[in-house]
Amino acid sequence: MTHPEATDADTAADATGRDLIARLAFGSMAAQTLRAAVRLGVVELVGDTPRRAADVAADARAEPQPMTRLLRALTGLGLLRETAPDSFSVTPAGALLHPGRPDSLASFVRMFTEPTIIRAWEHLDDSVRTGEIAFDSVFGTDFFSHLAQDPDLSSAFNSAMSQASSETAAALPHAFDFGRFTAVTDVGGGDGTLLAAVLAAHPGIEGVVLDTAEGLAEASDTMARGGLAGRCSLVAGDFFHTVPGGSDLYLVKSVLHDWTDDQAVTILRHCREVLPPGGLVLIVEPVLPEVVGTTADAADGGITYLSDLNMLVNVGGRERTRTDFEEVCRRAGLTLTSVTPLAGAAPFALIEAVAA
Length: 356
What we know:
The chain is α/β, with parallel strands linked by helices. The chain has 17 helices and eleven strands. The strands form two sheets. Strands 4, 5, 6, 7, 8, 9, 10 and 11 form an eight-stranded mixed sheet that branches. Strand 10 and strand 11 (348-355) form a beta hairpin. Helix 4 packs across helix 5, helix 7 packs across helix 12 (151-171) and helix 12 packs parallel to helix 13. The chain starts with 7 loop residues before the first helix and ends with a strand. Keywords: Methyltransferase, S-adenosyl-L-methionine, Transferase.
């Protein structure tokens, strides 16, 4: 009930607030709608021209009425259009769910709607109260050990991380002066998607991908597809123990946010130990503003803050501000020299650090 003295503006603000809360409360349902669309192959089945819901249902071996309801929900979410009653086409955003596209996000959706990821979120309040990692208590082991025990899930994670890196891989080679370096080691580089893009754009550079054996499982295929196998070495190892020497640039993308400050310092310190004179550590991660609500937040609509909570419940890491990055670099024997937004790959930034 609206207060009798409320103005029209108050009433409008109240309605807007209620709409916001409703959308947020239904957010997990929207995510599972995406998951169902990917699992059923809806975008592939609709194809490039409008199709009737009944035909999509038949190809998906699904019931016509529930399929129509799913397609209309996807239309409401902006991923499909209903071009005529019970006839649907794919929007540009929806096309990103097609697994055959080079810029597909289908694996990314599968992973981040995966029950293994979501279960720990059910205990977010516990993690906030205690600071403990919910995943560890739910599954009895840490996230990355759990991945190592499940090859299918590990492969799905690697594919999701590759898709998550595709935008950065397109932007990074042209946003940073790689040409002044002779060799780059991608620390925690996974399947090599990012480093392959750098090497392809800069033929004078040699490369190394450092990751666990599980993380490197698809890296040889990535390098072979790009004709880069002769210019890139794959090193199975643990960046908590050592980082291989021999490079003058150490690239660390979407790694530090997985870990606590002490662990991030250890990773960076190992980079510092093998950094030659004139060498550089290039960290590629989002940088949170010092105060929430500044224009920097507009780049991703607050998703980085959700990522921060995901780090809390699933792995124990965190997203960081510039001040936070300066501190972990300082503790590792490095000096942070610049932070530059990565154009075309918001909310990522290029964080440069040199030997202190």
